[in-house]
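Translate sequence into structure tokens.
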Amino acid sequence: MSLKWIDSLDIALELLEKHSEVDPHKLHFTELYEWVLALDDFDDDPKHCNERILEAIQQCWIEEK
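Result follows.
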């Protein structure tokens, strides 16, 4: 399964598994962006990301944690 920017919940779950010690409230968007790009299953154009997408991913992560 490849992840796209629109897969906020799936991305958040992957990040939660990989970075379980991190408090998503304190995460900078630049760091979140880099972590998403580094996910093995992520396959989307890095240029298609914006602040709204990162906020959605962060919110899903907060809700799942």
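Note: The CA atoms of residues 24 and 62 lie 6 Å apart.
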